[in-house]
Specification:
The protein is α+β, with helices and mostly antiparallel strands and 120 residues long. It has one domain: Arc Repressor Mutant, subunit A, CATH 1.10.10. The protein contains 5 helices and 3 strands. A 3-stranded antiparallel beta sheet has the order 1-3-2. The longest helix has 25 residues.
């Protein structure tokens, strides 16, 4: 059995990526999907809406409607205060976590790299 490591990593962070995008300002679903798809974080818009629904139910985002110049009314998503707090907690944890993982999976361990750089 093979595991799609990339899919597992995306699944763990895509929610926070949505919060990060919404921290920049309200966005409608299609706009979020395009940004996340362009970065390879979601496969299709169909995978985004269940995530947005969960974020809404948990209180991290809220919605509002705004008329569109090119069609029907659009549903926009924006962060709530709870969403801001969740994103802040993730940001605090992410850098040390990513640094630890990078050090553990590096081809040359950081201690060996520092030692060889000191010999130069």
């Amino acid at each position: 059995m093979t595991v799609d490591v990339g899919a597992q990593m995306r699944k763990g962070v895509v929610e926070y990526c949505v919060l990060g995008l919404l921290a920049r300002g309200p966005m409608y679903g299609w706009e979020l999907a395009e940004r996340l798809s362009a970065e390879g974080l979601i496969a299709s818009i169909g995978t985004l809406y269940p995530l947005l629904s969960r974020l809404r139910q948990s209180g991290g985002v809220r919605t509002f409607e705004r008329p569109s110049e090119s069609g029907p009314v659009r549903r926009y998503y924006e962060l709530t205060e709870l969403g801001v707090q969740q994103l802040a907690q993730f940001r605090t944890s992410w850098i040390p976590f990513a640094r630890s993982v990078a050090g553990l999976i590096a081809e040359t361990p950081p201690a060996a790299r520092a030692k060889s750089e000191g010999d130069a």
